[in-house]
Amino acid sequence: MLGTGLGQLASEITDTYEFPYQDIPNFPISTVEGHSGKLIFGKLGGKDIMAMQGRFHFYEGYSMKEVTFPVRVMYELGIKTLFVSNAAGGMNPQFSIGDLMIITDHINFFPEHPLRGKNFPTGPRFPDMHETYDLSLVALADKIAKEKDIKVQHGVYVGVQGPTFETPAEYKMYHLLGGDAVGMSTVPEVIVAHHCGIRTFGISVITDLGGFDDPVEVSHEEVQEAANKAQPLMTEIMREMIKRS
């Protein structure tokens, strides 16, 4: 599941079958620049994969059921492992723009929960969330990054509704609450994947920084540019993870 400006990995998929979202019954349509809106089936790292080139967001006006519907489709198609990427704002003073942050946990600030309503039989009514991001996949990513001399950070991802970028005070608050990066996606999809028993690995590209003494303005175009620059490193880690997992 590839986020803003992070669609390069899809170009490495071979033996592809591509389906535009608008051609798939009941699928939402991605409306955000940087999300091309295609479901791709093929091979990567010698494995059969399904890739979402562009995702859906709560801020686009979709319900949580619509945002997470593709994960339900993945489950029905037999997907066992979900790799998810996003562009995020960094709040940790140790981070720099362009860093890759392996997600170790998240904080859910979305106003609606993706499991609200009748429980799907894919998991329990009250799922445990202690290891939402698979520790063995995190360890594998660390090993590959070390082998390839790629700098990675670890951190907690804060999921918020958007679509405004955070105020300086909000950045500081989220960091005080334990967050290292903040974004407008990922958390709903990961919760549903976890509920379905799908192993999950997440990585954020730090595309802007906030919450420090010198406020920095940010635009969507700058986020896309930073994500594009970091893409090759993220792609290298994910490609090798898929090959080995």
From TrEMBL:
Pathway: Purine metabolism; purine nucleoside salvage. GO terms for molecular function: purine-nucleoside phosphorylase activity. The keyword Signal does not apply. Residues 7-243 form the Nucleoside phosphorylase domain. Keywords: Glycosyltransferase, Phosphoprotein, Transferase. One of its GO terms (biological process) is nucleoside metabolic process. It holds the Pfam family PNP_UDP_1. InterPro entries: Nucleoside_phosphorylase_d, Nucleoside_phosphorylase_sf, Pur_Nuc_Pase_Ino/Guo-sp, Purine_phosphorylase. Belongs to the PNP/MTAP phosphorylase family. This is Purine nucleoside phosphorylase 1. It comes from Prevotella aff. ruminicola Tc2-24. The lineage of its organism: Bacteria, Pseudomonadati, Bacteroidota, Bacteroidia, Bacteroidales.
